[in-house]
Amino acid sequence: MEKKEQLQTQSIPKLIGTLSAPAILSMLINSVNMAIDKIFVARGAGILALSGVTVSLGVYLVLQGFSLLLAAGSASAIALGLGKDDKKGAEKIVGSSVTLSFVLSLLLTVIGLPAARPMMIMYGANAENIRYAMEYSTVLIAGAVFFLLAQTANSIIKGMGYAKRAFINVFVSIIVNTILDAVFIFVFGWGVFGAAFSTVIGNAVSGVLAVHFLCRKSPARLKLCNMKPEIRTAKTIISIGTPACVTQIALSLLSLTCNHVANKVGGSAAVAAYGIVYSVIMLVYMPVLGLGQGVQPIIGYNYSSKNYVRTKQTLTYSIIYATVFCAVMFAGIELFSPSIVILFGGKSDPNLAAAASYGLRLFSLSLPIVGFQMIGANYFQYIGKFKQSVILSALRQLIFPISFILILFHFIGMTGIWIGAPISDFIAFIITVLLIKKEMMQKR
Which of 183, 399, 422, 440 has the most CB atoms at less than 10 Å from its CB? Predict the structure, then answer.
């Protein structure tokens, strides 16, 4: 069955399963990729090195934010374009997106390398861990071109409905990263530098595989004649991708806030505890984001085709699946948090393990409602209503949590970090419900 016919007629649950399973695995593996670096660093270089890598997370999120400006924007724009049978326009988006990824990554590298040390201090590095933070962040910034290319090209592939192919590209990169992590850290003794370098090589492999597919096998192909960006095309990509970019930049600012608060309250050990909690929570969030990426072409195609019944069905099933998954993960974390923390590097320090386990249980309190909020916010991005998506993302990821954390830590220390996020999620959930309800009433 042709992809177009699939999106138009196939059973929604079956279609979601077909398109989302590879995307979920891809996002999960992406999260595992970061977790692997932290696990290897914690066991091969120690807690101080782990806290340094945690500080560097802010830079990673900035890079990811700018990559999503192109990746999410181009994927959504292509899905909407193919829904209107505009293959020529879709190919212009493919070419422009790849070119923009090179230009943007070059700018980020040129600006980022000289600013790396001030950035690490801004993100909460201290005299103990700044050396490790600098090692990890400078390698990531230098390899930004491979990161942005891989993110953009694979998102384009998913936007066309070929989530399985994008998953294969990402999976291969993770295998490469895991093998090289072990070799660089334990055999060569390269420590944090080795962890970062293996990540860059993995990104390069994924990017090459994705570009090869776009040149040879995709329905809207990467062609040299389309690689000169048009202002109109670039504006379309950037306007649609802005919500995803804002979300990641907000996460970076949240990371900055949490690192500073943790460092002020408990030093490098508290920063390391936050790093462990964040890694575990991302393993829950990423499959939900993968589900969202999987349903993106279904929602974008059917919405642009004015098939609002199918669009609403897809949204409903997605919210149900995300909520069930998050509820199960919530139960697992509450029951097994000590064992989970030990797996993620807390074994060597009992105090670190206890602090991270306590924090993980509190941080996850809002998981049963997070699925609805995340899918709901992304829904507005997929239908081209970036204003609502930006508002929802900014409230949940930036305005509410940072405000609560900065207020609460003065009274309850690290607990302020752990409960600031759940409180924010509950408020953002209520706002999302109201906006989704309004949207559904308009499309009856």
Answer: 422
